[in-house]
Amino acid sequence: MLLHVHPVDPQPRNIKMIVECLLDGGVIIYPTDTIYGLGCDIFQHKAVERICRIKQVDPAKAQLSFICYDLSDLSNYTKSISTPIYRLLRNYLPGPYTFILPASKQVPKILKSRKDTIGLRIPDNVITRSLVRELGHPILSSSLPGDMVEEYTDPEMIHEKFENLVDIVVDGGIGGILPSTIVDCTGDEPIVIRKGLGAWEMEANS
What are the start-end ranges of the E strands in 122-203? Predict the structure, then answer.
């Protein structure tokens, strides 16, 4: 199903329909503040495995991140972080960044890396955050398969390609072509491990 959702004022009925799909173990494609992504309820194990099959990756090796509504979710899904790291997150989020953080025990095992870390996103996108708020907990965030990101900017083209693999393609308008900037915050100093859309002002000091 291709479902249009207004990018500034999302229709509550459509948001509720998508959330019900997620709670039933559905897989969606949805807009963020960067590129369109694959998503599901992080607590729906079979849905996470389904996304890994779509991407043709081993769940144990997949680098999966998830989207929170705001920083109040940090205490649930990450181990205690230092005050400087918290200030860093507060400064850059919401925005086009993925922060690698130590995972808490509440994070489903399938989402943790071998180093017991998670990738955390809070996109500056009204649709995405409306979905997470209505769901009440994070949704998975994973890039669409393939190297041609340009193919994945138009929701109608995305729907044509993936309609038999996912339950809903959320049409929130034309998407971007640059992914998020990934910052590893598990060491002594934050390290950028992928430069994406988000500018990183600390680079000059690192």
Answer: 139-143, 168-171, 181-184, 191-194
Counting other chains too, the contacts that 194-197 makes at CB distance below 8 Å and 24 or more residues apart are: 196/34, 196/96, 197/33, 197/34, 197/96
pLDDT at 203 over 60: no
- Summarize pLDDT for 176-187 with one digit per residue, the tens: 999 999 999 998
What is the rounded distance in angstroms from the CA atom of residue 25 to the CA atom of residue 47?
5
Q: How many CA atoms lie within 13 A of 155 on its CB side?
A: 19
φ/ψ region of 136 (left if φ > 0, alpha if ψ in -120 to 50, else beta) reads left
Domain ranges of the chain: 2-205
Determine contact, residues 29/169, Cβ cutoff 8 Å.
yes
State the Cα torsion 148-152-157-160 to the nearest 10°. 80
Cis peptide before 94 (omega within 30 of 0): yes
Instruction: Tell which residue, 154, 171, 168, has the closest CA to residue 4.
Output: 171
CATH code reported for the domain at 2-205: 3.90.870.10
Strand partners, 168: 28
